[in-house]
Amino acid sequence: MNTVLIKNANIVNEGTIFNGDVYIENGIFKEIASQITVKSPNVQIIDAKGKYLLPGVIDDQVHFREPGLTHKATIETESRAAVAGGITSFIEMPNTVPQTTTIEKLEDKFEIASKTSYANYSFMFGGTNDNLDEILKVDPRKVAGLKLFLGSSTGNMLVDNPEVLEKIFSSTDLVISVHCEDEQTIRDNTAKYKAKYGDDIPIEMHPVIRSEEACYISSSNAVALAKKTGARLHVFHLSTAKELELFSNDIPLKDKKITAEVCIHHLWFSDADYKEKGTLIKWNPAVKTAKDRSALFEALLDDRLDVIATDHAPHTTEEKENVYTKAPSGGPLVQHALPAMLEFYHKDKISLEKIVEKMCHNPAILFQVEKRGYIKEGYHADAVLVDLNAPWTVDKDNVAYKCGWSPFEGTTFTSRITHTLINGSLVYEDFKFYDVKNGQRLTFDR
């Protein structure tokens, strides 16, 4: 019997912080109390005095590149990096090679994860213009949801047939998660700047090419279609102030039919950072202005934005160093997302309780994840211990991503993740990984 006792922790959960002990038995939170005494000689005791115990983070949007793109990353390498960042569960995207657009390919990915993932896992099923029959086969209790690219797709995953799109929205009860950028607007803008600069377009033009207009056209159309059809819509990685008018905070998250996410990079960086970081911070949607960043943070705090995610999407440095038109968009983030949000806490921009709400509780509510995202008796024991006063600097020697780099290199974080537990097993402690692949397939209460 695997037993763990966490002593003297400041437990951050459901809007409160209280000091206490947490007893874990067979991967489940068994008891939470001000003081717990366990006499078993086999119990593993973790002294958490002065530290904060958070539920494990649930990241609802990652690209771990397996199968087919494993020179960039694998489920094993990126889930390992994730647990170093306090992320204990992830939902991975379908634009791998081959794409996850059939039940057979979906189950292939689950099989890989069952053997190699350090963290708990699920996968999005990918929609196309011609796979509605496959979409309807998806078991909503066993799969996180449906991902639609309404712009910036790879392969044939751009869903640009309005009739097909409406039929998909009308036919499934799955959470439909969407990438929203208007493809025609982007093509027109790209052609304009390519005519001026050739392939070596200045990176500062990225948020001009992938503009506020491109984002708003697409996201407003998606929201309108969801309202028309009654679909359950979740809009990924908002990047503009203008889009925020499409979302509300007047009802509880569990009752919302239309929800939205913000990613770490859109909260941290602005277009002023392109000069220093170049294509390392080239993302789709683009990092935009400081004004947009401030508006996104305000909407996060007032609950128009429901969850924080990473959109972790690693590429090699060689790929990122290409000229603008050939440099891929995306970057690695899972290891540094929680430390980045804790830095905002130190700057009095957000509370610990709000960070836990947006990174742990709300993803569980939004996707109806069974018995995760909280420190509750009877729930799976996914948890993270944080020392809020243990500064460390990101450098290549402590980056855990397979790609070997981070957009946060040179950044000193005030807070350090000291322990990560997955299903009651210690998998990470103070920059040390244990070879414990204890991740489980997520299930959903639907």
Automatic annotation (TrEMBL):
Spell out the molecular function terms from Gene Ontology.
Answer: dihydroorotase activity
Q: What UniProt keywords are attached to this protein's entry?
A: Hydrolase, Metal-binding
Where in this chain does the record put each Amidohydrolase-related domain?
Answer: 52-427
Which Pfam family would be a valid example here?
Amidohydro_1
* Enzyme kind, highest EC tier: hydrolase
Cofactor field: Zn(2+)
Give EC number(s), comma-separated. 3.5.2.3
Chain's role: Catalyzes the reversible cyclization of carbamoyl aspartate to dihydroorotate.
Protein family (similarity comment): Belongs to the metallo-dependent hydrolases superfamily. DHOase family. Class I DHOase subfamily.
* Protein name from the UniProt record: Dihydroorotase
